TrEMBL record:
Highest taxon of source: Bacteria
Membrane-spanning residues: 76-95, 107-126, 132-152, 172-193, 205-225, 265-285, 297-318, 330-347, 353-373, 393-412, 418-437
Name of the protein this chain belongs to: Major facilitator superfamily MFS_1
The UniProt record lists the keyword Transport: yes
One term under GO cellular component: plasma membrane
GO molecular function: transmembrane transporter activity
PANTHER family assigned: AUTOPHAGY-RELATED PROTEIN 22
UniProt keyword annotations, A-Z: Membrane, Transmembrane, Transmembrane helix, Transport
Lineage: Bacteria, Bacillati, Actinomycetota, Actinomycetes, Propionibacteriales
Residue ranges the record marks as coiled coil: none
Chain ranges of the Major facilitator superfamily (MFS) profile domain: 263-457
Location of the protein in the cell: Cell membrane
Membrane topology listed for this record: Multi-pass membrane protein
Length: 457
């Protein structure tokens, strides 16, 4: 496992603390956010609306009533993610501004993580028509995940010099996929053997949701112990008053001067589009497999396990490609593969497992690499002293908090009654993201931000 060890210029203690927070939160992202909760919440909502769970041949067409609006049960989880991200657009930048001024970044990060882990653990109580409780817990979990990731991503700049960030970011993502793989494998065994364990399938799913929350909370103690707090550096001076008031002032100044960093802004907009596509593919994959293609939960979990296993090596491989060709070119190559994936997904035959597994392998190859390199590439474009605040803007489109993609997916499904046109509609996000990213001049953006130029970009 030497290829996962810390680069020579990075403190080993902090490297492990940083990497194992990806390990910690991936239990929630994979088991809850990717595989189990969206289809489970859909089933609970369908039972509440129609008195039964919908099938491919006989879908539930009775809407839920929420604030006077008719919401299709099959779209509920995606609309919750949309609302959570819209709230995040207001909340996360303030979190980032506070983190940049705080001498206790790791405490702030872990506090959000433990709150999210508590919400994730409480999903064990979502049953017997409690779809509203499920929607609330999903909202809290996603908001806390995004908030913790704002602070976490900014720590990358603190612990790794420019030439090592691609490696550190890629290896941390690889640890995340390894952790997600292990927990999901355990949950696969529980769900598959639920009869032998004396559990209903619903009970097995809820027990798996509980395990994801406990995993997230427990392993967050590793970064809490190993990461160092640092005094704020290069903070933009704004007015007096409390830290919160100064943070709002810093946020206002950043938004006013963002146009002074055109390459940073262009990268951020490109990332918003292509990452919305990535996150939506991840979050809807289990629902698409169950509701559109007719696969059982065990098949879906096994497929995601395959994705996790391949993604572990994909993240490492993309990191090595970036050392040779630069992160910018490597990310663009990954986006081309993503476009091919969603087009192929539209034509997947029902109940044919081999094509479904082949698409899972393709997703695994590009999944971790594009995300890890995007994080390290963006870190090069951020002015000193505003890392967490800029990463808060970045997190508006990060995993579990995408909103344009889930909104489009939910609307297309509600209008057509099918998930097939909804999945292919996501290709637009990769096309727009690739076009915008191709126009980013990384060298110019790094110089504009006043940062040290890495050897290869």
């Amino acid at each position: 496992m030497g290829f996962l060890s810390a680069p020579a210029a990075v403190d080993k203690r902090e490297y492990w603390g940083f990497s194992l927070y990806d390990w910690a939160n991936s239990g929630y992202v994979t088991t809850t956010g990717t595989v189990l909760f969206a289809p489970y919440l859909t089933s609970v909502a369908e039972t509440a609306a129609c008195g039964r769970v919908g099938t491919t041949d006989d879908p539930c067409r009775t809407n839920l009533e929420i604030l006077g609006l008719g919401i299709a049960p099959g779209s509920l989880a995606f609309y919750v993610v949309t609302v959570a991200t819209l709230v995040s657009a207001l909340f996360l930048p303030v979190v980032g501004a506070i983190a940049d001024r705080s001498p206790r970044k790791k405490v702030l990060m872990c506090g959000f993580a433990w709150t999210g882990a508590l919400a994730a653990s409480c999903m064990v109580f979502v049953t017997d028509g409690r779809w509203a409780l499920g929607a609330l817990l999903l909202f809290i979990g996603n908001l806390c995940l995004g908030s913790s990731m704002v602070v976490y991503d900014s720590i990358l700049v603190d612990i790794a010099p420019p030439d090592d960030r691609d490696d550190v970011s890629s290896r941390a993502w690889a640890f995340g996929y390894l952790g997600g793989f292990i927990l999901l494998a355990i949950n696969l065994a529980v769900v598959t053997a639920h009869d032998a364990l004396g559990l209903s399938q619903g009970d097995a799913v809820r027990l798996s949701l509980l395990s994801a929350g406990l995993w997230w909370g427990f392993f967050t103690f590793v970064p809490f112990v190993k990461l160092r707090n640092r005094p704020p550096a290069g903070v933009v001076p704004v007015g007096g008053g409390s830290m919160v008031r100064q943070s709002f002032g810093q946020l206002g100044a950043t938004l006013r001067h963002l146009r002074s960093y055109p390459m940073t802004l262009l990268f951020l907009v490109a990332y918003l589009f292509f990452n919305d596509g990535i996150q939506t593919v991840i979050s809807v994959s289990s629902t698409y497999g169950e509701k559109q293609l007719g696969f059982e939960t065990q098949v879906l979990i096994a497929t995601i396990l395959l994705v996790q296993f391949v993604a572990f090596f994909g993240a490492i491989g993309f990191g090595r490609f970036a050392r040779r060709y630069g992160s910018h070119r490597t990310i663009m190559g990954g986006l081309v593969v993503w476009m091919a994936i969603v087009v192929a997904g539209f034509g997947l035959p029902e109940r044919q497992i081999v094509p479904f597994l082949a698409m899972g392998v393709a997703i695994g190859i590009v999944l971790g690499g594009t995300q890890a390199l995007s994080r390290s590439a963006y870190s090069q474009l951020i002015p000193k002293g505003r890392e967490a605040e800029y990463f808060s803007l970045y997190q508006a489109g990060e995993r579990g908090t995408s909103w344009l993609g889930t909104l489009v997916f939910g609307l297309v499904h509600q209008l057509t009654g099918s998930y097939r046109p909804a999945i292919v509609a996501l290709g637009l996000f990769f096309v727009v993201g690739l076009v915008l990213l191709s126009r980013v001049d990384m060298r110019r953006g790094i110089a504009e931000a006043g940062n040290t130029q890495p050897t290869i970009v």
